[in-house]
Design a protein that fits this description.
This protein folds into 3 domains: 270 residues, Spore Coat Polysaccharide Biosynthesis Protein SpsA, Chain A (Alpha-Beta Complex); 177 residues, Rossmann fold (3-Layer(aba) Sandwich); 159 residues, Glycogen Phosphorylase B (Rossmann fold, 3-Layer(aba) Sandwich), CATH 3.40.50. It contains 23 helices and 26 strands. Helix 12 links the parallel strand 18 and strand 19. With 678 residues, it is of the alpha/beta class. Helix 9 crosses helix 23 and helix 12 runs parallel beside helix 14. Strands 2, 3, 5, 6, 7, 8, 9, 12, 13 and 14 form a 10-stranded mixed beta sheet that branches.
Length: 678
């Protein structure tokens, strides 16, 4: 059976990797064919957010092609101007059929770099976008560059993923190694290492976005001592990084095809001669660059890309081992992990998520985390397995975080073999064996529950001994675990919650109706829903016959035997906010389980009062009658629902205490706990 599964996986892997290989972005442009000239009107602005600067010298068809792609993909989100700089071309250049473009004609050929600087000086935008004329921008190229400025801190410049005309990767940001060695990636364009937003030493001026002015009001210009290309963009990015303390980022979500074989000013010259000149200029500018930035270059000790990446993040890195790429919008545990990842990002860490047998096209969440700046492993090469990827990329990792006991069981040995410098963190999520132990109390003859209890008790107690830190989700579970491991290694990290709306924007008591229940196919949720349907709501309906229960989550995939006109199954709901705002209260009638219940915290985020059991309230530091109504028996639970549904002063009291209920679950508290680990 195992052999059959491996063969099936191997065939699937080959098929899906092949799909990635043939999905490449390619160019169909042929410079020998005349570009169809048609009138195009660029909707430029007199007060632009960004000035798009394109210098060119001859290369008429390439310039036309560049403008046509720019027209197609520039978008409308950001107001722009286009400054086209004709560097004294000898060809007959006709741009009369393009409207909205500002054309500057140099009276002499001054070269690419000086033309760029002249364009920057003449620009009106807050931002400058440099684009070479031998390019084809792709969809949303500009929006994605701005995404980095809008969502990352202290950004100096952002560069695009550069693609060769045949679809192969040309550049994904660049780094320097020890002794000023440069290295360019030989990865495929679909490899995970080049498909997340990350810090780099520099990006080329082929496609580069930055602000026109620094914080002191000085114009950001290129150093013209590097006039004849080579190191001008590296030098510019070093200015932003080392003189202005800004970060340089690469984003794979902005894609630009670049005709690398065609360089500025060489279109009609002998290629051999130009290559020899280029080699000489490279050596000359390298010496200039070294002289200018010697101390910064000496600080670089990395001898490969992976360790240089570590240095760019101040040697702070963490690897998360997971059983599934966290679906942050579907369950509270995954949302908690997402918040932990975000907190580490805010602390300056380089983040990776590792899970074997993950395929890019089968996960809806890989892209989300890549856009946060997280490197997410997925199958991308027929011969590279997770263990190869781990040994090649993460030897310097500081922290290995195992999310839940299954991940610890599956990946501990592999991590121990390769991550020699890492602290090992066992994130329990909830105490699984405790959950099964409580479930057995309601089903004493269930052998499957007993087997799961024994299995997870063994895994969790073993992991608690081996890990450097153990993360229970509540102080209650922390106290429970003290009997199994050194109390000094126990650090509580609960769910993370914060107010998501203003109280004044919520509906009043009178404007609301019905009851909200949220649950996944997790066994405690299924039991809670049956308890609600069979034992609680019949008592409620005697007093409130028209009250409906809105059921959110995929419980309907399992539960097929509940049919009642007042039980409404909505399934998975992408935007749950309207339910929090319109329902009068939420219920959490959990009879067993473990951990802290994220759904209850979510209700408090939207000022929605809750009726729950003591299992639901466990670990949340809630007071009955102050933060929520807490009852365990069906009759008392039903009375609490009726009371809260009808009692406006009580409802307002609980609602007004929502913010206090969330104090133990703040981002500040999370960071305080993480600092104990790092």
């Amino acid at each position: 059976m195992d052999l059959f599964k491996e063969i099936k996986f191997y065939l699937k892997k080959n098929r899906l990797i092949r799909k990635l290989q043939i999905k490449k972005v390619i160019s169909t442009f042929n410079e020998k064919n005349n570009i169809l000239q048609k009138e195009l009107f660029f909707n430029t602005s007199a007060t632009p957010k960004v000035s798009i600067i394109i210098p060119f010298y001859n290369q008429l068809n390439f310039t036309y092609n560049c403008l046509n792609y720019l027209y197609k993909h520039v978008g409308t989100k950001y107001e722009y101007e286009i400054i086209l700089i004709d560097d004294n071309s000898t060809d007959n250049i006709d741009l009369s059929f393009y409207e909205g473009i500002r054309l500057i004609k140099n009276i002499e050929n001054i070269g690419f770099l000086k033309s760029i600087n002249e364009g920057i000086k003449e620009s009106a935008g807050e931002f400058i976008y440099i684009l070479q004329s031998n390019t084809e921008v792709q969809s949303e190229f500009l929006d994605e560059l701005f995404f980095v400025f809008n969502n990352f801190s202290n950004v100096g410049a952002v560069g695009s993923k550069l693609i060769n005309t045949n679809g192969a990767l040309q550049e994904a940001g660049s780094v320097f190694l020890k002794n000023c060695n440069q290295i360019f990636t030989n990865k495929e364009s679909f490899y995970p290492e080049v498909n997340y937003i990350k810090k780099v030493d520099y990006c080329t001026s082929i496609s580069l976005l930055f602000k026109k002015y620094d914080v002191d009001g000085n114009i950001n210009l290129f150093d013209e001592q590097f006039t004849n290309t080579h190191f001008e963009d590296a030098d510019f990015c070093f200015q932003l990084k080392h003189l202005q303390n800004k970060n340089i980022y690469y984003t794979p979500f902005s894609e630009v095809i670049h005709f690398k074989e065609l360089t500025y000013n060489n279109h009609k010259n002998n290629i051999y001669v130009e290559n020899k000149k280029s080699e000489i200029l490279f050596k000359v500018n390298l010496q200039k660059f070294k002289k200018k930035w010697q101390s910064q270059l000496d600080a670089i000790q990395a001898t490969n890309i992976e360790t240089r990446l570590e240095e760019l993040y101040n040697n702070k890195s963490i690897v998360f081992f997971v059983g599934i790429i966290p679906p942050y919008d579907k369950d509270s545990g995954s949302n908690r992990l997402k918040e932990i990842i975000q907190a580490f990002i805010n602390l300056g860490y380089h983040i990776s998520i590792l899970k074997e047998k993950t395929f890019l096209e089968e996960s809806d969440y890989i892209n989300y985390y890549q856009r946060l700046g997280v490197n997410v492993f997925y199958e991308h090469n027929k011969t590279i397995k997770l263990k190869n990827y781990l040994s090649n990329n993460f030897c310097e990792t500081n922290i290995a975080w195992f999310y839940n006991p299954d991940s610890f069981s599956n990946y501990y040995a592999l991590a121990k073999m390769h991550l020699h410098k890492a602290k090992f963190v066992f994130d329990m999520v909830d105490i699984h064996h405790l959950r099964y132990k409580r479930a057995i109390e309601f089903d004493l003859k269930n052998k499957k529950l007993e087997a799961e209890f024994l299995k997870y008790k063994k895994i969790e107690l073993d992991a608690a001994q081996k890990a450097d830190f153990v993360i229970p989700i509540s102080d209650f579970e922390k106290k429970y675990m003290q009997q199994f491991c050194n109390p000094q290694k126990l650090i509580t990290i609960s769910n993370i919650h914060y107010i998501k709306t203003k109280l004044c924007n919520t509906l009043s008591f009178e404007e609301r109706k019905d009851i909200l229940f949220i649950g996944s196919t997790h066994a405690p949720n299924l039991d809670a829903l049956h308890f609600l349907h069979k034992d609680i709501m019949p008592l409620v309906w005697k007093t409130l016959p028209n009250v409906k229960v809105n059921i959110i989550g995929n419980v309907s995939e399992i539960i097929k035997n509940i049919e009642h006109p007042n039980f409404i199954f909505h399934g998975f709901v992408e935007n749950i906010n309207p339910f929090f705002i319109s329902n009068k209260l939420m219920v959490a009638p959990l009879r067993y389980g473990a951990g802290v219940k994220g759904k209850i915290g979510q209700a408090f985020e939207y000022y929605l009062p809750v009726v729950m059991t003591s299992i639901g309230a466990e670990g949340m530091q809630l007071v009955n009658g102050e933060n929520a109504l807490i009852n365990d028996e069906a009759e008392s639970f039903a009375k609490a629902i009726i009371n809260l549904y009808s009692n406006k002063p009580l409802w307002i009291k609980l609602q007004s205490n929502s913010e206090k209920s969330l104090l133990p679950f703040s981002k500040e508290k999370l960071e305080e706990q993480l600092l104990k680990i790092i």
